[in-house]
Design brief:
By secondary structure, chain A is of the alpha/beta class. Chain A has 12 helices and 12 strands. In chain A, α10 crosses α11. Chain B is an alpha/beta fold. The radius of gyration of chain B is 18 Å and the shape is globular. The chains are: A alpha/beta, B alpha/beta. Chains A and B meet through α5, α6, α7 and α9 of A and α2 and α8 of B.
């Protein structure tokens, strides 16, 4: 089981102090949060990608490349990489380069992006979002697996005899997650390729995502990648903790009430009842997170949103201390013990290389026989 | 014959409200021409006002609002009634239909009605409310019912005319419902396109 942090990278005024960080401060804070993520024993740091204010992370592989040099064990990932508006050739190149620099500690989560104007800024049309995601990923998938690609599609210049360099490390492409909050087609896409499916279920009620993940698991098996239980599932989570749960509620409430996504809407109490948000003690976070497995089955990756809504860096780092000290060790122990041996652990480069070697071994056996 | 369901949505804000009164009469006028056992489900948007705003902000409905939406979407027909504010539907009425999926009412037999102080704004039904349901591709019946304050009190021609309009709209709606098979819900997962098919069109 892998645990980590995912960040949107928003620059938001702290509603308590009224102070707005500069872009520079925010970028440096994201880096500090990522390093802390490794320090407290978590496995993954994932950054969003955005191309409009108030968000800073427009260039994820630049940030992750820097982090590759500043960390030793952390898996560097995204939440999400825009498969619609980025050129799939550039994604293939950027992430293969990052994969080499990070010695394999890289995967990525693909998403469509829901901000209309971003599409035309990059020469695309949001109404073609699904089609773009399907065509672009199909090309990306080939670029990482075929040394020379001839290709023609609807959305980009054709390729004749194109080789994407560098080739993936050890001949094994970075693991890919497909993120979606409402589209069965994306769950279908993840299942078709045998890739991971990430349900960022933090802003919506659980039952909606239970169906989406259930569909992915069933189709994963349909396409011959294993049993439904063996499909690779990641989930979001959102928590704010203090040793005493009343302190957590009191401190987090102004950030909740003014948060960019749900602020000025439902009360904190309504939202914690209706979504996975947990505001309380570490034990409450453990209890709530363990319910995710009951809803979605054994899963491989749990990412937490920690640094949004203008929370100061100091507070976020304290949250990470609590998460790494009091919460994740318990969750890791419990969830790893519950997961049957037939269900894979979270994807790593080493595991993918071993699986590729095993496949090759099977092929060779077939030939000698 | 399978019993049918009429979902009645009233956006009246006062309690008791004349929009609700009109909605109830229109529902009764419709049910009269339908087989016995017709179910009438009435949704007062006033009770869901906070939940509707929260849905606009968060993108998901509270459990109570979700139940109301499911009742409307799964019904065989819809009766939608709003008080007129500033020459159009009130904000609550519009907000409720804004949080439905764009296709949720496609093809649904629908009757529209409105209340107002005077008959001066009765054409708001035709220039504001009917276009909303046209956008949503509901099958709106030709007669829209407007009730002004004076319609409720007059025993003479105006009151009788209101009753006649209610009966006519109800009969039109019932006739459409009777022509149809009971409403069936599409399952987005059951009808999901296999991926190789999605890919083949690339």
């Amino acid at each position: 089981m892998q645990f980590g942090i995912f960040t949107v990278g928003d620059v938001t005024t702290d509603p308590v102090t009224g102070r707005t960080p500069t872009e520079h401060e925010r970028i440096k804070a994201m880096v500090a949060i990522a390093r802390k993520t490794e320090e407290v024993g978590l496995d993954v740091f994932a950054t969003g990608e955005h191309h409009n204010p108030p968000f800073v992370p427009s260039s994820p592989t630049t940030m992750l490349g820097y982090l590759a040099a500043r960390t030793d064990k952390l898996i560097l990932s995204t939440s999400t990489t825009l498969i619609t508006t980025n050129d799939p050739v550039k994604i293939a190149e950027d992430f293969a380069m990052l994969q080499h620099l990070a010695d394999g500690r890289v995967d990525l989560m693909l998403g469509r992006g829901n901000m209309g104007p971003v599409y035309p800024w990059f020469g695309q049309d949001i109404r073609k979002g699904i089609e773009l995601a399907i065509e672009n990923y199909h090309l990306l998938h080939r670029l990482w697996r075929e040394d020379v690609v001839d290709w023609q599609g609807e959305f980009r210049t054709p390729l004749q005899g194109f080789t994407s360099t560098p080739r993936p490390l050890d001949g094994v492409p970075p693991f890919v997650w497909h993120g979606s909050i409402r589209s069965p087609q994306i769950a279908e896409q993840a299942a078709f390729y045998g890739d991971g499916f990430f349900a960022n279920h933090i802003f919506w009620p659980t039952e909606h995502f239970v169906r989406l993940v259930g569909h992915y698991r069933q189709r994963f098996a349909h396409y011959g990648h294993g049993t439904p239980e063996q499909a690779i599932v990641g989930l979001g989570g959102q928590v704010f903790m203090r040793a005493n749960s009343q302190d957590a509620v009191r401190e987090f409430r102004p950030y909740f009430d003014n948060a960019p996504v749900y602020g000025h809407g439902p009360s904190l109490e309504e939202f914690t009842e209706q979504t996975p948000l947990t505001v309380g003690s570490p034990q409450q976070v453990i209890d709530k997170t363990l319910t995710f497995r009951e809803h979605f089955g054994d899963y491989q990756r749990q990412l937490f949103l920690m640094d949004h809504a203008g929370l100061p860096l100091k507070t976020v780092l304290e949250q990470l201390d609590l998460l790494g000290g009091a919460v994740v060790p318990v969750l890791r122990r419990e969830l790893d013990a519950l997961r049957p041996a037939s269900v894979p652990d979270g994807p790593t480069h080493e595991a993918l290389v071993a699986a590729a070697l095993a496949d090759r071994g099977t092929e060779l056996e077939g030939i000698t026989r | 014959m399978t019993p049918r369901t009429i979902a009645v949505v009233s956006a009246g804000l006062s309690q008791p409200s004349s929009s609700r009164l009109l909605a109830d009469q229109l529902a009764a006028g419709t049910a009269r021409d339908l087989p016995t056992g017709t179910r009438i489900v009435t949704i007062e948007l006033r009770d869901l006002a906070h939940d509707i705003v929260n849905n606009l902000l968060t993108g998901f409905p509270s459990p109570a609002l979700r139940r109301a939406i499911e009742q409307v979407v799964s019904a065989d027909s819809l009766i939608a009634v709003t008080p007129l504010y500033s020459g159009s539907y009130n904000g609550l009425f519009k907000s409720f239909f804004d949080v439905l999926d764009p296709d949720a009412l496609a093809g649904k037999p629908t009757a529209i009605a409105a209340t107002g102080g005077t008959a001066r704004h009765s054409l708001a039904l035709e220039h504001a409310i009917r276009p909303l349901f046209t956008y949503l591709r509901a099958a709106t019946v030709p007669t829209a019912v407007f009730a002004a304050t004076e319609d409720w009190g007059s025993a003479g021609s105006s009151g009788e005319a209101l009753t006649a309009r209610i009966e006519r709209a109800g009969a039109e709606l019932a006739a459409v419902i009777n022509q149809r098979q009971p409403a069936a819900q599409a399952d987005p997962y059951a009808s999901a396109t296999p991926f190789d098919q999605l890919l083949r069109t690339r």
